[in-house]
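pasting for the record
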Amino acid sequence: MGSLDWAVGLSVLSAVSYAAAAVVQERLAAAGHRGLSRWAVSLSLTAVGAGLHVLALGFGTVGVVQALGTLTLLFALPIAALRTHAPIEPAAWRDAGLTVAGLAGVMALSSTAGGSALLAGDLSRYLAIGTAGGVAILGLAATYTVSPLVRSLLLAGASGAAFAMASVFSKSLLASFSVLMMLFVAVFAVAGYLLGQLSYRGAGLAAPLAMVSVANPVLAAVIGVLVFGEGFRFGTLGVMLAIAAGVVAAVGVVGLSRRTAAEVSVPDDASAIQLEPHTV
C-alpha cells in the first residue's frame, strides 16, 4: 500500500470512530451532559478517532486527511438511526450527500504533494493566538444568542476551527517534536471536544456535525495552502472547481440546519430544552 492508501484507510476508520462518538455526544447533551458511562464512551471513541487521524496525517497532506473526515457525517446518520430505531428521511440523505460530495470534490482536487510540515516558532504562535481569538469570539457570540440552532452552529464552528488547528499542529509535531507544539495540540483538541459537546445541546445531531464537518477541513485546507505549500490540481481551474465544490457542501449544511430547526422544540423554560425522541 502507498502512502495515500494508508492515509485514506486510516482516515475512514477515524471518521467511523468520530461518527460513533458524535452520536454518543448528542445523547449525552440530550441528557443534560449527565452520565459517567456516556462520558467514558464518548471520550474513548474520540480518542481512538484522534489517534487514527494523527496516524493518517503521517501519510497524507492536511487537506486530504481533513476532507476525508467529512465522512463522519455520512457514517453518523445510519448509526444514529440504528440506535433510535428511526428511519432516515430522504431529505436528510440528500443534504448529507451534498455536504460529503462537495467536500469530497475538494479532496479530489487537493494536491497530494506539499512542502515542509514544519512551523516556525513565531508563525505557530501567531496561528495559535489568531485561532484562539476566533474561537473565543464564536463562543462568546453563542452565549448571547437566543436561538438554540444558531447557538449550536456557532459552537460547532468554533469546535471545527479548534480541531483544524489541532490537526495542523499535529502535522508539524510529526515532522519535528516540540513541547510547544504538543501543548498547542492538547489545548485545541480539548477545546474542540468540549465545544463540540456543547454544540449538540438543543439542536440534535445533523446540523452541528455538518458545521464541524465544513469548518474543520476548510480552515485546515486554507492553512495547508498558505503554510505547508499544499494546493489544488489544475491551477486556477482547480481552485475554481474547489470553490464550487465548497458551495455544494454549504448547500448541504444549510439544508441540514433547516431540517433540524423544524425538529427542535423550545419550551418556555430555556434551561430545559428537550429534543424530539426521533431527532437524528
